[in-house]
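Q: Convert this sequence to structure tokens.
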Amino acid sequence: MKAVHYKSLVAGIGLSLALTACGQGDGGSAGGDSGSGGGDASGPTVAYVPKLQGIPYFEAMNAGGEAACEELGCTWLYQGPVEADAAAQADIVRSFIQQGVDVLFVAPNDPDSMAPLLQEARDAGIAVGTTDTDAPNSVREVFVNQATAQGIGETLTDQIVEAMGGSGRYAIVSCGETAENLNSWIEVQREYTASEYPDVELTDVVYAGEDQAAATQIATDLLNADPTLTGLVGECTSAAPGVAQAVQDAGRVGQVSTVGLGTPMSMADYLEDGSSSASVLWDVQNLGYLTAWAGTQLAEGTAFEATNDVSSDLSGIEYDEATKTLLLGPPLVITSDNVGDFDY
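A:
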């Protein structure tokens, strides 16, 4: 084990407050209390830069990270842009590098442009990782993966095909065109649909950014342009309710099926009225918890085991040494039957 040096114990509070003041407005960083995070200042400082903050998904991750640091004795800092903007995200990463945090996690909007910044952080003695979204061609020391691309892509496909009755034509409304995680899932969906479902056609993939209203409009345009569509998949947590809303607005519930990756509370009404059949996700708060725990391991120089017992809720977490990946677990299918079990 390497010697433990928590560089940010003195500077953390003042500089984290400075972070909350930067970049208001479109594409800038979000203000408020999020940048100050939570936890115990006696341990390492783990900073997390999501694709954007203010949406339920990443706020749930933040809650999980804060809870972990309260239990593990670390300080959790959380700051993201107000839009899924790679340049604004890079500015926040640079701020955390200047602050001298102990560990830096990023869910990169653009993995390729983030890679040099992760190298800069490593050069400054900061342990670096990715979570939710990977930058595989970077120096990141671990990727905290919510589920395998194969698992997510196949589950999304199975759910939309089941909802369509085993045959039909569907389109995908995704978010960022450069999002490595979304693109890897879509590639699985293309291949799996073609190989396993001969009576189903994936017709198109379109991009709405992290904007629910844009996803609704794009889905509406797809339905108007192709009346033969019988399914829509919302590939991210803003697109999932967006496509369901489009079907609801068009009065085509029961004619056009939708599934997607949506947080439970954002999807509850759509699942109840049938405009969405299922949401494929994972326990987002546990993903935040696992990220913070991984940060403490990196800060302390503790190697990950092949299986790791992280907490009472997170046991047997697998680690793949070849890809340096911690895997939260298999995807979770949320329906009208279990959506009430979640509070985010």
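Residues 149-281 form a domain with the Rossmann fold fold (CATH 3.40.50.2300).
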